[in-house]
Amino acid sequence: MFTGLVSDIGEVSSVEDRGALKRLRILCSYPVEGIAIGASIACAGPCLTVVAVGGAGHRSFFEVDVAAETLFRTTAGRWAVGTKLNLERSLKLGDELGGHLVTGHIDAVATITQIEDFDGMRKILFRAPDDLARFVAEKGSVCLDGTSLTVNSVAGSEFSVLLIPHTLEVTTWKDKRAGDAVNLEVDLMARYAARLAEAN
Asked: What tens digit of pLDDT does each residue of 175-192 get?
């Protein structure tokens, strides 16, 4: 489990095709001795398992295997050397839950349709797949590229969020452009509420 609070910006340093999966090496600033093999790290949203760790100059790195389902359902298939990724390590019991409960299981890809910058902030409009739009609620939570964000407005399959200067500074959101695809995870509670309503 995660909170959607980004703790580092990683950078893809190598991509190796291995049949139905890809092995990625991601540079980070986490202390190498604190990254365990088998640990879960959210990389731009998807929860990925660490399969190797090491040091590269002044930075650490970890490696992950990205399988076919993740490559199909997320933006991971488009990651290349130099791609920047929002990173978050998994929660420990007793950690502060500053965002919202995030699983790292991506539902689909959303598309940025419009960006408006003002007063150091950034308003972004997204289009979600039609079958997921019902899970996005005004003033509710959504996880986009691994970042817990509050939904400002909803109109059909489009919704907007507002990014404050701090979020822009410590994430990859300052580099996004209209037309970019982002990983979307809808709120866990909304998903189960909808399922219960269907069952009834």
From this structure: 999 999 999 999 877 776
